[in-house]
Structure formats: structure tokens, C-alpha cells
Amino acid sequence: MAATAAAALTPATPLRFKPYSTLRFLSFYSKNPISPRLFPPLPRRPVSFHSTIPRKRCFCSVISAALQSGEMKKTEFPEKKVGEMGNTVGEFRKKLKIADIKGGPDEGLNRVGQTVVVMGWVRTLRVQSSVTFLEVNDGSSLSNMQCVMNSDAEGYDQVESGLIATSASIWVQGTLVASQGSKQKVELKVEKVVVVGKSDPSYPIQKKRVSREFLRTKAHLRPRTNTFGAVARVRNALAYATHKFFQENGFVWISSPIITASDCEGAGEQFCVTTLIPSSREAADSPVDAIPNTKNGLIDWSQDFFGKPAFLTVSGQLNAETYATALSDVYTFGPTFRAENSNTSRHLAEFWMIEPELAFADLDDDMACATAYLQYVVRHVLDNCKEDMEFFNTWIEKGVIDRLNDVAEKDFVQLTYTDAIGLLLKAKKKFEFPVLLVYFLFKPT
Amino acid sequence: MAATAAAALTPATPLRFKPYSTLRFLSFYSKNPISPRLFPPLPRRPVSFHSTIPRKRCFCSVISAALQSGEMKKTEFPEKKVGEMGNTVGEFRKKLKIADIKGGPDEGLNRVGQTVVVMGWVRTLRVQSSVTFLEVNDGSSLSNMQCVMNSDAEGYDQVESGLIATSASIWVQGTLVASQGSKQKVELKVEKVVVVGKSDPSYPIQKKRVSREFLRTKAHLRPRTNTFGAVARVRNALAYATHKFFQENGFVWISSPIITASDCEGAGEQFCVTTLIPSSREAADSPVDAIPNTKNGLIDWSQDFFGKPAFLTVSGQLNAETYATALSDVYTFGPTFRAENSNTSRHLAEFWMIEPELAFADLDDDMACATAYLQYVVRHVLDNCKEDMEFFNTWIEKGVIDRLNDVAEKDFVQLTYTDAIGLLLKAKKKFEFPVLLVYFLFKPT
């Protein structure tokens, strides 16, 4: 578990994501005082055993070299009692985030007068004659913390020198005060600001709106946008609500195998998983005839990792069923794969799927479970992601909150296939495929 | 979401896991009255669009055939209002499970006198002169519900005819009474029993202990054993506690990509994911020269699914870092893959990994988070899986509960590398690799 430093990534420099690379990057660029508690010197990573010492005889040469050099004798391991060594690992405390401050029923007014620290990324900076406004976002919520700064605040020189710019990561200490603005109830009167990672004017996501196609080319930075941040928070809420619903109802989560030799109900084309083709570092130039083959030119699966063809799962149902007939009610929630080459929003090569399996249940129980689940997760998101849902309602899909409220509150109806077709025929809507055609194709026999 | 019927699988018959296959199997074998509420007739599944109608022109032929046959004109869609169609989907109710009955502080005594229904699988059957004891397990807990049956109970003839045997799935209604036995506080005085799925004496997991190697050959039945049931419940508790810990501490769950073109910190060999090799149905006989190649005999990756080589992820860290530098604290929890061909208990080809990424954190915060997480999940399992942990403590690893209590309650200490080696040198234990050798190989420089 590596602590990721909150570095502001300068896009012009190529990024290498290796252990501590963000930190290295940071310490190279930062010329500003950094709180010593924040970033103590990092220990070097021990070298990988596998990469440097592939064979047993190496052990001996390392040891004998150490012995000959006398280094081993020099090493002293002082006689300490256990109690004399090291310190107790510190207590883990939940960080105070902007959502914690502004998310309460009084939107932070209960904390007015408190000294708090906010750590996050600068969204905008407005320098006015007497005062500077910094909008800081820490990803815990869509809305920022407005930080108000006078020229006597410690670290104000970093505003003047341009170090504090959009997307710089900063540490701000100040006092919460009631805000004069209409957009928020509280704001932070800054006492001290520290630039943790600087940014510069070439940062590609400035205040103006950018297209999702453009953001696709900046995949490492798009989580900092309103849309992707909101999607991440809502997706997280949906996933957690899924676990909560099933756990509260006595289901057991099953991690069904991802690599499998089974197909399942012909759900779709499968990806092959193999080591017969060289790994990433050499794959680009791999000759076909390097793939092991039998005398008659067939692929020699006996030389593959599992000794036979293996595939990515298209469904965990097969495995979940064996557990449902032992544990009563189970669910899977994991990634699933389809190698269907249709580029639509409804066909994904990789997606996370929930597959509940109920024992001693009939189709009525099944429908009751499915609708209860849907209503539970929709209600959870409407209650816990209000700000994000309002953002979607305004900018992405008008009316989505009303529609989801309907799903969460109205009764679901079960009706016959013929009645469903009848409803569609009466609907004043043009469908891509004629309803009667669909009726004949899918009619239960 | 298909409801899985609780069929007792007769092992001599080959199993085909297709939709409703367990149910079909069941209805074929069962000659006993089955509660009509339990298993109403199932609707036929609509045929798969893809498998039967691959091309657009088929639409027309289906429609025109229907028109010519006059079938289309015959179809009537009665004019109903929405309110007249169908019924409201029923309420989803959490099933009363054996764990709910016996899991409370008074182990079920508070429910004495209640009429309850238990659905599960027969573990053992003891027919005595005046009374029959049935041990029924529903997978919600390790311990069974002891069901006591007189010959006047409805359905008792199924005991006499041998239908109720080990692993048969049954539905039992009765009254909870205080138990005379020392092993449980309550038992069920049976009023009615229904065999949902029968079993027979060839069922391979009878009362005597069987080896895990043997169970490996009965993978579809081993979830019904004590060991695999306990493992599933503890694994489920660990997974849920993992989500709870991070969610309660403001982390956002990120589902990092499983299929990826990135390597990550050289963590291990990668599996290649490809569609250049035919899918499961034809893979066994695939000729090497059917793999697309370029003029100079290299694999033509442009014809692969993603147009370039793709692999299974060895770590979600790269992606989690981009989200941590936007949302502050995130974690991944998903499957990870290593194609290292070493068959040890520490090298798995597929495993679920948790990767927290903390922004604005240093190594001390990192250690505090790691130890708090460990203590949280260990405490959660000790509190919520008592019976299963006692089973492990008795049968799998003596002392495991004491050891885990230590982990959950004692302070973690951080110490220097040299102090750690000093401790190991003093330990009266023979290690596979000499401690001094390890010291020189991994010594921080």
C-alpha cells in the first residue's frame, strides 16, 4: 500500500508511474517549504528478490562477498528488548474533508469559528485588489471550499509568484466563517497556505468547459473534472449500496472465477487468456511460429499456463449456483467480459455484473428481490449523492432525479408479455425496431 | 437474475448448468407434492436475439412469414388501462434463516413456541424407534437445526420410503421447542416436511470426513461441507468489512481496469487477453497458422480485439493513483492476475487485491491506515463469524483465535530494518533462508 502524494502533474513532462514516482516528481519540482510531517524522506524500496537473484547459487556469492569484505562482521545488532525498539504505529484518523464540513444539514454553519485544514486541488483563483479567492476541491464532494486570503496570510507570496494556480495541490489552514456569498454558507479565512504540488498555465483543464472526447486523451487528469468526479462518487455509492442490500438480507458474496474453462449459457463471445504469446514487454514483435504447436500444426495447449484453453468469464452464474444450493442465498459482484465487437453503449468488453442466486425461491421471489434491490440502490444514491445527482440533472440528463424518484417510490407491476406489447403499441413513440416484429421474435411459445 | 432451485443434485447424473437446468432436473425427479407457491411453472426463456437472428434480412422473413400465415392478424392486444394489467410485484422479505433463529444471545430460546419454516439440506438422519432426528443446514451458519419428527408428522412417509436422505433439500414447518440435547438450546418439532429435491445413498459426501483432495473432484458439492461453508462465510465477512472500513473512512471504491495495456512496477508476468485465437467452442482444434500474421511472420495485433496486445492487470495502482490525486482517498478491490508458474500457496494466478491510495499522506499515515484496516477486519470476523472461527480453531489451525485476538487488540510497532533483523536473529526458530543472508539481500542502502 503506497501512499500517493498529491502532486499536481505538469502535463508537459512524461509521467512514469513507478513506486513513489509522483513523490519524486514532486520533490524535483517543489521549491517551496513543505510541512516536514507531510513528506519525510522515503525509504528506498528493497530490491525485488526475483529480478536480481534468480538462482540459488547467487545467495552464496552474495554472502561470501559480504564475509570477505568483512562487512558482515562489522554489522552489529544491538541487544534491545522488544519494548525498546521502535514506536507504536500511530492512530488512523479519518480526514476532515470538505464534504464533512459542508455536507451537514446546516452546510457547515455549526463549525463557524473552528480552525480547520483543507487539502485539495485549486479549481480557480481570483485575485482582487484587497482579497484573493481560492476555490479548493478535495474530491469528497462536487462543491469546493471557498478560501478567502488576505495579503498577510502566511504563504501569500506563492499567489504573487504564480505558484498557486489551477490544479496546484495545496494545504490550507484557516478559520471557518459565515460566507457573504450566496453560493455557500461557510468559507475558509486563510491563515496559512502551503503548495504541495505546483501547476502551471499549460494545465489542460482550465475553467472553460472541455469535451469528453478531449478528456479521453487526458485520462490521468479527468478524475479532477466535475463530471468524472461525480460519476466516481455515484458509482462508489451504487457499489456499496449493492453490498449493503445483499448483506442486510443474508446473502453471501461469492467471488466466482474470472479465468475459466467454462462457457455459460452462450452469453457471448469469450476472450482467450494465454501465456503462449509473450508478455507485454515483448508482445509487439512476437512471431507466430514461436507459438507452441503440435505435429499437425494445431496450437499445443498442453504448453499453455493451465495446460488447456482458458477464457475470461462471461458469467459467474454457474459457480454461484453451486454455492446457492449450499448457502441458500448468494450473489456475485465482479468483472465480466464479452468479446463482442459491437461499439455501442450497451456492449462493453468489460463490465461489473451483479448475479444474485436465491435458493428455495420462485419467479415471484425473484422479481420481488430484483425490484427491492433496484429501489434500495436508487434510494441510496438519491439520499447520499444529492449534489452529484443535481449536477447530472442540470448538465447531463434533465429530469433524471424525478425519474429515479419514481423508480424508488412507485410500485413495480408484473404483466404478461401480450399486455406489455399492447402497452408498447399504444405508446406514442417511434421505436428503432417495430413492436410487432419484436413481438413475433420474442413471443413465448 | 435467475432463481436457483434448491435441488439435491444426484451426482451420478451429468449436470448441465443452463437456465433453469436445476429446476428441470428437479421436476424430472420429484414425485412428491411440492408446495405450489414454491415452484410455479416457469416461463420459457425468450430465444437469444443474437443466436437466432444474426442478420437484418431475417427480420423481414420472420415478419412476412407471420403475415402470410395470417398469424399477425389473429393476434389481439386487448384495450386495457394500465391499472387493469398485471399485479404489483410482491414485497421482498428477508428469509428467516437458521442463523437468525440460533444466532441470538439466547440461542433461539426467545422464539420457543413460534411456528417457523426451515429450508435447507439434510446433513444427517437418525431414525429411532419412536422419533426421527433430522439435522438440517441452510448455509447461514455452521450449526444445523435439529428437527424432531414423530410418525404422525405430515410427510413422514418420505422418511420411510428413503426419500429424505443426506443432502436432500427439504422444506420443514414446525414449532420451536427447548431442546433436551446438550448441543443446542432449541430444536424444531416437525409438523410438516416436503422434499424439494431428493438425494440417494450414492451422494459422495456422507457423514464421514473426506479429504480436501477428494472434494476438489466434487467442486459443485463441496460448498455443502463444513469447511467450505465456513470459508465462504468468513471470506464474505472479510470482503464486506473491507468495504465498510474504507467507506466509513471516506474512501471511494474504484474499479480499475482488468484488461489493460499497462504493466505496473514489474509486479509479475502477465496473461495475454486475445481474440486472435478462436473462442472456447473451437479452441481445442485451432491451427497456429489461423492466427493473423504480418508479411514477416509476426502476430498481426491490428486484427486483435483492441487492435494491439492486451493483458490482464497485475495491479490497479496506476489507475487508483490518478483517482487519488483527484478524490483524495480511494481504494481498489478487485481481481488481479499473475502468470507466474510457481505452484505454492503464496503464488496464485488469480486473486482479489485491495489497493488503498491516500493523498496528502506520508508513510506514517500509510502504516496507521494499514494497521487500522487489519484490526478492523480481524475484529469484524471474530465478532461476526464466531462459530466458523471456533471450527477453524478446533479442526484447521489450533490457536488461530488467540493469534487473531492479538492482532486485533495489541499495538503495532514500527521498527528499523536493523532492529527487525536483530529480533529474527534472536528468535529460536529455524528459517528457510538464513536471516543474515536476507539482511544483506534486502538491506536498505
Automatic annotation (TrEMBL), chains A, B:
Alphabetical GO biological process terms: asparaginyl-tRNA aminoacylation
A GO CC annotation given for this chain: mitochondrion
Positions of the Aminoacyl-tRNA synthetase class II (D/K/N) domain: 213-424
Enzyme class: ligase
Transmembrane spans: none
Record-level Gene Ontology MF annotations: asparagine-tRNA ligase activity; ATP binding; nucleic acid binding
InterPro entries named among the record's database cross-references: Aa-tRNA-synt_II (IPR004364), aa-tRNA-synth_II/BPL/LPL (IPR045864), Asn-tRNA-ligase (IPR004522), NA-bd_OB-fold (IPR012340), NA-bd_OB_tRNA (IPR004365)
Residue ranges of every copy of the OB domain listed in the record: 116-195
EC number: 6.1.1.22
Family per similarity comment: Belongs to the class-II aminoacyl-tRNA synthetase family.
Stated name of the protein: asparagine--tRNA ligase
Organism of derivation: Gossypium raimondii
